[in-house]
Amino acid sequence: MKYLVMVAATLMLSVGQGNGQMATSIDVVDVPKKVLATFNKNGKVEQVDWTLEKEQYIASFYDETKLVFLQLYYNEEGKWLKTQKELEEDKLPTPIATSLSEIYGENYAILLITEASYPDKVEYQVEIEYSEEMLQLLFDKNGKLLSKVALEEEIEIFEDED
Q1: pLDDT at 153
Q2: Phi, psi of 90 (to 5 degrees)
Q3: CA-CA distance, 114 to 120, in Å (whole number)?
Q4: Would you say residue 16 has pLDDT above 60?
Q5: Residues with Cβ within 8 Å of residue 132, at least 6 apart in sequence
Q6: pLDDT tens column, 18-32
Q7: Could you give the CA distance from residue 75 to residue 118 in angstroms, rounded to a whole number?
Q8: What is the DSSP letter of 36?
Q9: Residue 6 above 50 pLDDT?
Q10: Residue 3 in contact with residue 158, Cβ under 8 Å?
Q11: Residue 17: which of 133, 162, 136, 108 has the closest Cα?
Q12: Predicted TM-score of the model (pTM)
């Protein structure tokens, strides 16, 4: 007997990046002192997971005060590069919600919203399901569509020995 399992492969693309490289988990003792000094200016965080990806140090943690999961990116010199956070659908900025409606009408479902704040801009990655297709859309803060990527679905077939 065969079982068909659909796995939605949400490509691990950071907002504004599509490098496809996997982050490597690192211990806090391996994080440069300059990075830790900059990170610690944000206040005390109880549990932080550190990763290294393309020479960027990423601090991932849950912010208890804002009730949101955050990822802060730094370079080796401790310069803050960006902050990513997941948003609820009701927090999606109006210009982006308007653009989605104008482009896709009412026939889409939002799967994931990620806000990326950079020193000079803010971008929003919105993953939607539209016409049986999963799409990853990148918008600027004014609702301008910057890019669209079709996300692949991976199908795995498992055979039962019965």
Answers
A1: 61
A2: -75, -5
A3: 17
A4: no
A5: none
A6: 445 578 999 999 999
A7: 13
A8: H
A9: no
A10: yes
A11: 136
A12: 0.76
- Terminal CA-to-CA distance of the chain, rounded, Å? 7
Q: Amino acid letter at 152? A: E
The contacts found for 68-73 with CB under 8 angstroms, 24 or more apart, are 72/39, 72/42
- Pair of tokens at residue 119: 């020193």
The residue count of the chain comes to: 162
CA triplet 57, 59, 64: central angle to 5 degrees?
170
Which residues have CB under 8 Å from 63's CB, separation 6+? Answer: 45, 69, 70
SS3 label, residue 31: coil
Whether the CB-CB separation of 151 and 9 falls below 8 Å is answered with: yes
Residue 86 CA from chain centroid, whole number: 7
